[in-house]
Design goal:
α3 (111-130) packs antiparallel against α8 (265-278). The N and C termini lie far apart (108 Å). β4 (78-83) and β5 form a beta hairpin. The protein folds into 2 domains: 17-95, Phosphorylase Kinase, domain 1; 96-290, Transferase(Phosphotransferase) domain 1 (Transferase(Phosphotransferase), domain 1, Orthogonal Bundle). It is an alpha+beta fold. The chain has helices at residues 53-69, 103-106, 111-130, 180-183, 191-207, 222-231, 244-253, 265-278, 325-332, 349-374, and strands spanning 15-23, 27-34, 39-46, 78-83, 89-94, 98-99, 133-134, 143-145, 151-153, 160-161. The strands form 3 sheets. It has a 5-stranded antiparallel beta sheet, covered by helices on one side.
């Protein structure tokens, strides 16, 4: 089934559309040129036909989460969010020219690069968890590359509260990278399920396919994958020369029993660092917000308001007299426009003064002529 065509780009003051970047289930993404400051940005806009309270809750939460986490170097930066001229909510984000969504299937990532990406993503997710947020959709296509080649985590579109106390806490999954407990709908998401998803993502980047896909034309449909994931029988990465240390850390992250996995993203990141060190690589630096700077994110996951457009209702006091209805009607009458029937000319104070001066000059000139005539000057 072919994918749908993207919608029309939104009309946003100060931004000019360049081209579509992608089309999703409820939103489209466009490349825009921002005028001031001048730069290219990605704009995610909701489809008008799908705007309802549930979608608005997810969209508002995504905007607020990414804004509060944007300072993290491995999380996609959000610049702005509002509502376009035609009523569609939109996000203005950093434009990343590349990502890992499809590329890893054609060209698998090296072990060194995959471990580096893993540490950075674990750091980003640990920071989100410390602020009370679950991403719930960790997978290769949600890891983008900035213009400088750095991996960043994107798309918090189905994120929810770590406490599970919001209406956003519904079942949502990307099957190839979802944990057994999410696939079986035993939970909508936990820290342990995100550890699984990151482990499955790192595996995929190295292997060139998701962990439970089979080669040689085997059955890889959604239901086939779900059955294999629920069994959780880890299969070694089908690629020669993969160090056993890498297999061990990924095997632990994808244990069927959540209690046997790494207890946090921080522990996962540190084990990935130890693997780097064991392989003679320089460990990737951890980038985790310290506790005293990690207050719980101020996110209202149940906010379904259409936010971004504000119409002022404040009454402004004035000493000017209100205009009469007749005066207002004259001003709004199209006949008073240029080229229409004119109802008269109103002079300002300077115009009135000039009119008086001209009148005095005319009278003076007439008196002078009368005097000269009486004296016989004109013969």
């Amino acid at each position: 089934m072919p994918s749908r065509l993207p919608s029309n780009p939104p009309v946003i003051s100060g931004y000019a559309p360049v081209r579509p970047l992608g089309a999703g289930g409820f939103a489209d993404v466009f490349l825009f040129q921002q005028d001031m400051p001048r730069r290219q940005v990605a704009v995610k806009v909701l489809l008008k036909d799908f705007i309802d309270p549930d979608v608005l809750r997810l969209f508002n939460a995504e905007a607020d989460i990414m804004a509060q986490l944007s300072a993290h170097p491995s999380i996609l930066t959000v610049y702005d969010a509002s509502v376009s001229a035609d009523g569609r909510p939109y996000l203005v984000m950093e434009h990343c020219p590349d990502g890992y969504g499809r590329a890893f299937r054609k060209t698998p990532v090296s072990v060194g690069d995959a471990l580096n990406i893993g540490v950075k993503m674990a750091s980003a997710l640990e920071t989100a968890h410390r602020m009370g947020v679950l991403h719930r959709d960790v997978k290769p296509s949600n890891i983008l590359k900035t213009s400088f080649g750095s991996p960043v985590l994107s798309d918090f579109g189905i994120a929810t509260s770590l406490l599970g106390d919001s209406q956003n806490n519904v079942f949502a999954m990307s099957v190839p990278w979802s944990s057994p407990e999410v696939v079986s709908e035993s939970t909508t998401g936990t820290v342990a399920s995100e550890v699984w998803s990151l482990g499955a993502t790192i595996y995929s980047l190295i292997a060139g396919r998701s962990p439970f896909e089979v080669d040689d034309g085997g059955a890889n449909g959604r239901n086939d994958l779900k059955k294999r994931i629920e069994k959780a029988q880890y299969v070694s990465i089908p690629r020669k020369g993969i160090p056993i240390e890498v297999e061990h850390v990924l095997l632990k992250s994808m244990m069927k029993n959540p209690a046997q996995r790494q207890v946090s993203m921080l522990e996962f990141a540190m084990e990935l660092q130890e693997t780097q060190q064991a392989l003679g690589m320089r460990p990737t630096q951890l980038e985790v917000v310290v506790d005293q700077w990690a207050p719980e994110a101020q996110i209202n996951f149940d906010d379904d308001n259409l936010r971004g457009v504000t119409i002022s209702e404040v009454e402004v006091s004035t000493t000017r007299k209100p205009k009469s209805r007749a005066s207002l009607q004259r001003r709004e009458n199209p006949d008073d426009a240029v080229g229409g029937r004119r109802r008269g000319v109103r002079l300002g104070s300077s115009g009135k003064l000039l009119f008086v001066i001209l009148g005095i000059a005319v009278v003076s000139f007439g008196v002078t002529l009368g005097v000269l005539a009486a004296l016989g000057v004109f013969g």
